[in-house]
Amino acid sequence: MRSKEIYERGLKIIPKAAQTGLRSETHYPEPFIPETAYGCKIKDVDGNIYTDYHMAFGPIILGHNHPEVNEVVKEQIDKGVLFGAGMCELEVEVAEKLIELIPSAEMVNFVNSGTEATYHAIRLSRAYTGREKVVKFEGCYHGWHDYVAFNVNPPADKMGKIYPQSKGILKAAYDATLILPFNDSDAFKGLMAEHHDEIACVILEPIPHSVGAIIPTKEFLKTLRRETKTYGSLLIFDEIITAFRHNIHGVQEEFGVTPDITTIGKSMGNGYPIAAIVGKKEVMSMIHNGVLVSGTYSGHPSGLAATKKTIEIIERDNVIDYISKLGEEYRKALIDLIDDLNITARVIGYKSIFAIQFAEGEVKDYSSIVGIDKERFKRFAAEMRKRGVFFTPNPMKRCHLCLAHTENEMDEFLDAASEALKLV
Ligand SMILES: Cc1ncc(COP(=O)(O)O)c(C=O)c1O
Q: For the whole prediction, is pTM greater than 0.85?
């Protein structure tokens, strides 16, 4: 098996044989060494072909290796891979498009990853308000930097207290972070009443997909907006997963709440590295004007070319409608299957994202998720993989649909799931 050989070579010199932590889990139960990916299929070096629901943690919205996107990237790199000076027209074109689309966008700064985007958004909020503290919600992920690497998925006995996701985080970052349960307006109001003159910003995934899917109440989002406005703190929506995948204007449009700053990434470039901080002119104009934002590869022409084309296709082909409706069908069919099998499991999600969790009950916040049966999910993912269906065995994560998935893949998924669920 080439997969095993390559994995073992890698394991000696690459920590856990993965460049990013959660990818190491995708080696379970066998090494996963992908070689090619087209549409919704991914093939490994041993020739095994899987239908992919992982979609690289979400960016692939049009399908892997989309020919039209690749074409414009090739045209761009023929003109120049990286200029790294001044500003090219593509930066203006894509920024203009984002401002047209996203309600909170008045100015734009491009970076290469979501982590960079949330880092700068928070630093900007501190510079703008002259305050230091950040409010974040349990279950939300905003990248790996010290400002936010807390309480994404703490164990049950650590919930509600500051819980670092990593060793090596600055002590000062603990002190500057306030953790709250999602969807709890009263807890938020109480915190603001007590600490408002210290709070620089409130950051959240409007739909926390980093632990599957928690649907916000409109009332909660509106409370965040009202209170932050009252007390002069900035509201940051981290729409790295949700913008373009769920709504071309960001889910801020459908929930009717406009934040001060929005971070976007993932689906905007269909897999090319690109992210952005967008927001109010008054705040954004502090960038390069007192607030340091810097990056050799920021505004990379290949990512921008991919983004311009991806957005064009999303609009032209009604991609979001298609994948959202398909997601609804997957969820309905899976709920029926689970009912038929009479097992303890639930199906959660939103539009093109769905997740099966071995637990019961409504999902209101992270406390409804912490107790899911994790071992059972790992076995389920392994059985699905044996049947040609690939997603991460991480029980907190989710499946993503793309334009290339069809009802045929759904039927395959259901057949595989009906066998796998019986076995686990
Ligand atoms: C909501 C959210 N914010 C931020 C990030 C960090 O983005 P990146 O991995 O591009 O640094 C992620 C990545 O999964 C994310 O899901």
A: yes
